[in-house]
From TrEMBL:
UniProt xrefs under InterPro entries: DNA_primase_core_N_sf, DNA_primase_DnaG, DNA_primase_Znf_CHC2, DnaG_bac, DNAG_N, DnaG_primase, TOPRIM_DnaG_bac, TOPRIM_dom
E.C. code: 2.7.7.101
A GO CC term assigned to this protein in UniProt: primosome complex
Organism: Segnochrobactrum spirostomi
Gene: dnaG
Top-level EC class as recorded in UniProt: transferase
Domain notes: Contains an N-terminal zinc-binding domain, a central core domain that contains the primase activity, and a C-terminal DnaB-binding domain.
Gene3D superfamilies, per the entry: 3.40.1360.10, DNA primase, catalytic core, N-terminal domain, Zinc finger, CHC2-type domain
Job description of the protein: RNA polymerase that catalyzes the synthesis of short RNA molecules used as primers for DNA polymerase during DNA replication.
Protein's name according to its UniProt entry: DNA primase
Length: 653
């Protein structure tokens, strides 16, 4: 029996090759990248110790770089299971859940008709190309020029022109021996119900062929060339060759670039896709004027695990994204999602590339927003949450929406993320929120010359710097060890050698009479194996600089000789910073646990306690830093005013 190509293609699309091959091999976890459809194993066809057998889910193809065997789903089954071709197809159809076609003459005739229809559509594509290059295509070529389509791009995409005549294509196909019924079946000609002669579907339009995954022309998109022509874009109708629900424009060209890049961009129109492709971004496809379907979603995930849907940033583009969300949510699976890029200023990709080049477009794509964030914003932006009942209604809407996700693990993650975001949103109703971007970092509280760490930058990216600042103050001002022994003892140092150094300092603090001297006595009595660390913390004379230069570099206000009271309050502030960092780490661990496991009421309450504590401490720290900033300005000003009298005294005046 001959199986229709469409039937075999459906099996390949529904059934990942890795699922077929995975029954007979063990995947190498180090080399395989399941999210990218990339799998490696030791070859089942010859003996080997290192994995050289490669399966590419997106192409539906396997190849062994050791023995050279290669093939697809069907060949793998025939060669590993000894099945005949029909037996292999029947087994794979069962795995894919695709019903076997009836073995009758009618199905054979339909497949033959489909092949013939493909020939008819190909004849039409060649006709449109010929007209485009001739005198009648001058207006269409001018339009392509205004769209900045290069001759190479026009050739690659086989741009054509449908003349304005009523039946030019019909007459051409008839002269090639194609009967009118075939033209109608192929979607090229329309027969009116009132008995008038059939006429061409596409007239006076720039013609863009639409291909299937095998690169065969199956339909057309026609762009109007005059402002009064409606609709602006006209696609071929659904038929035996063409299904808008399953096809993506340019997918056959984008498949390999998407695999290489690990990403795919989805735009709204085929001319947008052509412009992006021409700009050198070949992993791009376009929808065909329909809402996202589950088939298209699955097709996109075969190209990349997280496609970027690129919409105009206007109201229509945002509305389209919101419609897409409802289609995508039920289909979400672990490791697969979508991101959304909303282009600025109402520009489409073509306009953005024309004004800012490919780099501008790519910057927007890289800034794409995750699906969850777009969904949450859609539900909360216009929501009224000023009463408990309205807040409960918002929670229910989100809960119902997330309930459509069929993958339990993904649904659990979305529920947790939604509860966290709702908690933050609702908390803003009862307390003013300060800007915590960076926890207060970046706001300058001293003059521009202050390097490294000031009070407002006392929590650097590296924990080491803050911990060494605290230890340096304890060495230089040993009395602080006595006054704040308990706080210093419980300070959560992350670095082990810093904890041991702190413990050694506290042991010295317990010795009677030690505090008659200054910090130099501490340095002299420390265990010798701490000397290199002491040099890093403090800065010693053998560096060729004055003692304490590293501490002053971390905390520049020390160069202005502030009071010990001020330094003591600063130390308390820095210890609070260390405690905040520890609590934030506990919060992060609890959140990670909740994402991995079932979110219990106890764990949720624990997360809320941590969040409230972090928020409270952040607010308190920011308030203190504003106060310290004023004090530091006053200290610097007072030190500058005192300089003349100091210099006069030094001169013996």
């Amino acid at each position: 029996m001959r199986f229709p190509d469409s039937f075999l293609d459906e099996i390949r699309q529904r059934l990942p090759l890795s699922e077929v091959v995975g029954r007979r091999v063990t995947w190498d976890k180090r080399k395989s990248q399941p999210a990218k459809g990339d799998f490696w194993a030791c070859c089942p066809f010859h003996q080997e110790r290192s994995p050289s057998f490669h399966v590419d889910d997106r192409r539906g193809f396997y190849h062994c770089f050791g023995c050279g065997v290669s093939g697809d789903h069907i060949r793998f089954v025939t060669e590993t299971e000894g099945a005949t071709f029909p037996e292999a197809v029947e087994r794979l159809a069962g795995m894919a859940g695709v019903p076997m076609p009836a073995r009758d003459a009618a199905s054979e005739r339909r497949e033959a008709q489909r092949r013939t229809l493909g020939d008819v559509v190909e004849l039409a594509a060649k006709f449109f190309e010929t007209i485009y290059r001739g005198g009648a295509g001058e207006e269409a070529r001018a339009y392509a020029s205004r769209r900045a389509l290069s001759p190479e791009t026009q050739k690659t995409f086989r741009i054509g022109f449908a003349p304005a005549e009523r039946d030019a294509l019909k007459r051409h196909l008839a002269a090639s021996g194609i009967d009118e019924a075939m033209m109608i079946e192929a979607g090229l000609v329309i027969r009116p119900d009132d008995g008038r002669p059939a006429y061409d579907r596409f007239r006076n339009r720039l013609m863009i062929p639409i291909h299937d995954l095998r690169g065969r022309v199956v339909a057309f998109g026609g762009r109007a060339l005059t402002p009064d022509q409606e609709p602006k874009y006209l696609n071929s109708p659904e038929g035996p060759l063409f299904s808008k629900r399953t096809l993506l424009f340019n997918a056959h060209r984008a498949r390999e670039p998407a695999r290489a890049a690990g990403s795919i961009v989805v735009v709204e129109g085929y001319l947008d896709a052509i412009a992006v492709y021409q700009a050198g971004i070949h992993s791009v496809v376009a929808t065909l004027g329909t809402a996202f379907t589950e088939d298209q979603i699955e097709s996109l995930w075969r190209l990349a695990p997280e496609p970027v849907i690129c919409f105009d940033g206007d109201r229509a583009g945002i509305a389209a994204a919101h419609r897409a969300i409802d289609r995508i949510l039920p289909a979400l699976t672990s490791g697969h999602s979508f991101n959304f890029a909303f282009l600025p200023d109402g520009k489409d990709p073509d306009e953005l590339i024309a004004s800012g080049g490919p780099a501008r477009f790519l910057s927007e794509v890289r800034g794409a927003v995750p699906l969850f964030d777009v969904m949450f914003e859609r539900e909360t932006t216009a929501a009224r949450i000023d009463t408990p009942e309205r807040r409960a209604a918002l929670e229910k809407r989100l809960d119902d929406l997330i309930g459509t996700i069929r993958d339990d693990r993904v649904q659990r993650g979305y529920r947790f993320a939604a509860r966290m975001k709702l908690s933050e949103t609702f908390s803003m109703l009862v307390r003013p929120r300060t800007n915590r971007s960076g926890g207060g970092r970046g706001r300058q509280s001293g003059p521009p010359e202050a390097p490294s760490i000031s009070l407002s930058t006392a929590l650097p990216a590296e924990p080491m710097e803050l911990e060494r600042l605290v230890l340096g103050l304890l060495v230089e001002y040993p009395g602080l060890l006595v006054h704040h022994a308990e706080s210093v003892g419980r300070a959560p140092f992350l670095i082990d050698v810093h904890r041991r150094f702190r413990d050694a300092l506290q042991d010295l603090a317990a010795e009677e009479g030690l505090w008659d001297g200054d910090g130099a006595a501490i340095a002299a009595r420390l265990d010798g194996h701490f000397f290199s660390l002491l040099a890093e913390i403090l800065g010693m004379e053998d560096d060729g600089l004055r003692r304490g230069h590293r501490l002053r570099a971390r905390f520049p206000i020390l160069a202005f000789h502030p009071s010990e009271d001020f330094i003591e309050r600063c130390l308390v502030h820095f210890l609070s910073r260390l405690e905040l960092r520890s609590i934030a780490a506990e919060l992060e661990r609890a959140v990670s646990q909740a994402e991995r496991e079932e979110l219990t009421a106890e764990l949720w309450e624990q997360i809320q306690v941590y969040k409230r504590e972090v928020e409270h401490r952040e607010d308190e720290i920011l308030r203190r830093e504003r106060e310290f900033a004023d004090e530091m300005r006053a200290i610097r000003a007072a030190y500058g005013a005192a300089l003349p009298s100091i210099e006069h005294a030094a001169a013996g005046g």
